[in-house]
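Exercise 7b. Backbone tokens:
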């Protein structure tokens, strides 16, 4: 089973493949900030410090939301309510304090 480590708490969980980061956080007993749980609010961004290639590919909705938040699109930042775990990875939750989801720019919409 994939093993996911949350820092800085150093808590981990072993989860079934295809488990969302948000649910893995609950299993690990860490507080992952989130709101809508459906790729709309942008509050659940987390930094992937290891194993970015072990997560599900980014879908268009997630990419658009990260872009509106001016967050990286290279897979180092993912939405915990969208990215699914398929192998071992490490997640930095302190990242959640480094951006403000209210800064989302819906005017920058290109779709
Ligand atoms: S919780 Fe709203 S986008 Fe993930």
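Sequence design result:
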């Amino acid at each position: 089973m994939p093993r996911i480590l949350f820092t800085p708490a150093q808590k981990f969980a072993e989860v079934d493949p295809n488990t969302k980061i948000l649910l893995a956080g609950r299993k690990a007993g860490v507080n992952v900030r989130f709101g809508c749980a459906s790729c709309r609010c942008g509050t659940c961004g987390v930094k992937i410090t290891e194993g970015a290639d072990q997560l599900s590919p980014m879908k268009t909705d997630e990419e658009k939301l990260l872009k509106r938040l001016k967050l990286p699109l290279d897979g180092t930042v993912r939405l915990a309510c969208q990215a699914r775990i398929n192998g071992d990875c490490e997640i930095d939750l302190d990242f959640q304090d480094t951006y403000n989801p209210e800064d989302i720019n819906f005017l920058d919409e290109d779709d």
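Instructor comment: The pocket of FE2/S2 (inorganic) cluster is lined by residues 34-37, 39-44, 79, 81 (CB under 6 Å). The chain is about 15% helix and 25% strand.
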